[in-house]
């Protein structure tokens, strides 16, 4: 790949003329909030923040950048956790924000589809779908700021993957500007389209390294007639998995979310997040949050959960349980789950591991590998929470109490993370279940990934982005 160059005055003047004062920003105070990732682990620099309002402007930006051999870093809501939208600290790249492109271009109940621009905020898309009696079945804690372009580019997961899969399962089509500035117009909402390589799937999860997603056609599903949320305390993770399978047998596909929360994660939320309350009378070693939905004329989720949990208590799988009696109570239970990451952040620096292993292996993995890691690093604490039903757990390590956490991570972090990833690999798992690679996991991805996969990724990157201007230093490890 050709080495990228720093943006010069000639390029910046052309971009300023193209975008105007709203779209071309050089004020350091306005740019500064977008130069760090959500966890404040990475800090970059950029001569300008480019904020186009149309796909045509994005295409023009990319053409100018390609001519000047200047790198671009696409960015949406900047809610990622692996530094995938943070520019390099040397200031060689320009930050390309898609947040102004926030229109829902079309939405159809007959097609069960919506076409949304990259800057549409996830919660706004939820509202648009609700207005026509449909829903977009992907949600996560950052729904108030995460954007559609970022969710597509990272193949986001969330809390409903159990039933509907990650973003890749919900993308019907993509519009994107490719590294040469050409506009790929692939927004058809076809369910069947067998015309060779699937470019929409190639761009989904590419983290902006193959082009800039400007809009996406997304699948909608019917709105639910009712929903219910329950919180259950359990003795161990195996009981949780057994409970999930029994509930699925009793309710079909009514269970859409099944989130595992250990006692130490819940305690952290109760301590750090104002207004939260313990859901059960006594603390339990493990907990699950369950959401079940009912369709018109289908299974009553309240009755199904009541019967399923009563049976589970009799069988000893569940120690105690509560079912939300109102929407407010349901949201309060969800807050306990969705606030774990925020509570961790408030508590101090920690090592995050977004891992997946086969679902059947997860219960034993959680017990066995937590003990191994905590024994290897005395005083450390593993908080393991997340999407048990699809084998994705956030296996996070908190440094020992009463230590300088950043200093501890500086000394032990790389070794601890390598140990966790080695254990995951031995279990046939992945070091990145839903957050992507970005720059945070680049070295570990290169270390643990099959050479054939790496070669293929590099070949695709080189073929589509021969100048190397699209989000360099992310996702695709350079050849050694």
Looking at this protein, list some descriptive labels.
480 residues, Alpha-Beta Plaits, Uridine Diphospho-n-acetylenolpyruvylglucosamine Reductase, domain 2, Uridine Diphospho-n-acetylenolpyruvylglucosamine Reductase, domain 3, 18 strands, globular
**pLDDT below 50 for ≥5 consecutive residues: which ranges?**
none
The total of beta strands comes to 18
Helix content: 25-40%
Beta strand %: 15-25%
Anisotropy-based shape: globular
Q: Please identify, by name, the CATH architecture of the largest domain.
A: 2-Layer Sandwich
Helix and strand content put the structural class at alpha+beta
**What radius of gyration results from the CA coordinates?**
23 Å
Number of helices: 17
Strand order of the largest sheet: 15-12-14-13-17-18-16
Q: What does the average pLDDT come to?
A: 94
Number of domains: 4
Q: Write down the CATH topology of the largest domain.
A: Uridine Diphospho-n-acetylenolpyruvylglucosamine Reductase, domain 3
For the largest beta-sheet, the strand count, sense and barrel status come to: 7 strands, antiparallel
Class of the largest domain, according to the CATH hierarchy?
Alpha Beta
| Ends distance | 14 Å
How would you characterize this protein structure?
- With 480 residues, this protein is α+β, with helices and mostly antiparallel strands.
- The protein has four domains: 9-100, Uridine Diphospho-n-acetylenolpyruvylglucosamine Reductase, domain 2, CATH 3.30.43; 104-222, Uridine Diphospho-n-acetylenolpyruvylglucosamine Reductase, domain 3; 226-341, Alpha-Beta Plaits (2-Layer Sandwich), CATH 3.30.70.2190; 348-426, Alpha-Beta Plaits (2-Layer Sandwich), CATH 3.30.70.2740.
- 38% of the residues lie in helices and 20% in strands.
- It contains 17 helices and 18 strands.
- The protein has helices at 9-23, 28-31, 55-68, 122-131, 148-153, 161-164, 167-170, 199-203, 237-251, 263-272, 301-315, 327-338, 340-347, 362-376, 405-426, 442-448, 451-464, and strands at 24-25, 49-50, 71-75, 93-97, 104-108, 113-117, 134-135, 171-177, 183-186, 212-219, 221-222, 226-234, 255-262, 286-294, 320-323, 354-356, 381-387, 392-398.
- It has a seven-stranded antiparallel β-sheet, with helices on both faces.
- Helix 1 (9-23) runs antiparallel to helix 3 and helix 10 crosses helix 13.
- It is globular, with a radius of gyration of 23 Å.
- The two termini are 14 Å apart.
- The relative contact order is 0.12.
- The model has no long low-confidence stretch (mean pLDDT 94).
